[in-house]
Amino acid sequence: MKELGKEGERGDDDGWEVAWGSQSAGVGAGKRNATKRLSIGVFRGAQFAVKYTSRDQHSQKRAIPFCPKNVIPSLPTDKWTRENSLSLSLSLRFAKNTSMTKHAAEHGSFSAKDYQDPPPAPLIDPVELGKWSFYRALIAEFIATLLFLYITVLTVIGYKSQTDDKKPGTDACGGVGILGIAWAFGGMIFVLVYCTAGISGGHINPAVTFGLFLARKVSLVRAIMYMVAQCLGAICGVGLVKLFQKSYYEQYGGGANMLAEGYKTRVGLGAEIIGTFVLVYTVFSATDPKRSARDSHVPVLAPLPIGFAVFMVHLATIPITGTGINPARSLGAAVIYNKDKAWDDQWIFWVGPFIGAAIAAFYHQFILRAGAVKALGSFRSNP
């Protein structure tokens, strides 16, 4: 048996490497006469995975919750100590006459219930400006917001065109209706968050970015650049709608957010605050790293509740403000439509969403995730 426990330690003959901490821990067997390669990983988020890969590319992968009572048969439970240490032992036979046993151990607190969030993002991180992944994320946010505005504003204009009683052959009860508009907004958020979550985080909304910044999930530099990319994408998306349907665009309001007649300013502002709170609160809950650690399916399903939250908020607030809850969406439509009414109410669609996002960030981070005053520093969850 060979002891593996030092970070970065590497074996010349076996080809193994160990890396613990916030990174994944891996052990790979590379014996010359071995016919298979074994990888063991302990991933951030309390997941344990075992992967067998043969040279003919046939592979099997198994991921199980990190729990002493729920381990694969190859891992003897007597090697686990729940509170103060982690000890893994695995023995596999690679060929008829070849057997390899690997043992990895790390001392420290690490159990399923005792989870601690990753370290907060730095306020200013100049290092990320030199990484391609940062600019790739900006491009993803720009394109996603462009597509979001193009599809949704086109849906709004199409609905108004189909229900215009001044046009012959139109039906006031025809078109997609408010329900269809809400589905367009919620469905596009679901699709785009799913597509971009692994690249940029799938914000597509300055209010979401602002809330995540307050929770120290993203740096100030990234937050500002995301907001710029989102606003530019929104302007370009609405610009495409006007380019393809200029006459309808001007005639039916350009999809701009405006306070509806009969509603006071405070009502519109309150609708935007509460609507954005629902959205950002859902984002925090759906992407909670502790929930991702406990339930491996959560990262895949996260776009669904986020999109559904957008759908529900639109059903409630379309009659009041046309539903902003996204400053980039409101700004893009106002810039291209460029009418006084759209600009007069524009502040509502910035102040309201940012207040709602701030409240959601505070509520989730300091009330739901914190057990006491001491948790304000570490955000450590209670059992």
Automatic annotation (TrEMBL):
Annotated compartments: Membrane
Transmembrane segments: 138-158, 178-199, 220-241, 267-286, 298-320, 347-368
Source domain of life: Eukaryota
Membrane topology: Multi-pass membrane protein
UniProt-recorded Gene Ontology molecular function terms: water channel activity
Gene3D superfamilies xrefs: Glycerol uptake facilitator protein
InterPro entries, A to Z: Aquaporin-like, Aquaporin_transptr, MIP, MIP_CS
Listed PROSITE patterns: MIP
Annotated GO CC locations: plasma membrane
Alphabetically ordered keywords of this record: Acetylation, Membrane, Transmembrane, Transmembrane helix, Transport
Chief place where the protein resides: membrane
SUPFAM superfamilies: Aquaporin-like
Family designation: Belongs to the MIP/aquaporin (TC 1.A.8) family. PIP (TC 1.A.8.11) subfamily.
NCBIfam families: MIP (TIGR00861)
Record's protein name: Uncharacterized protein
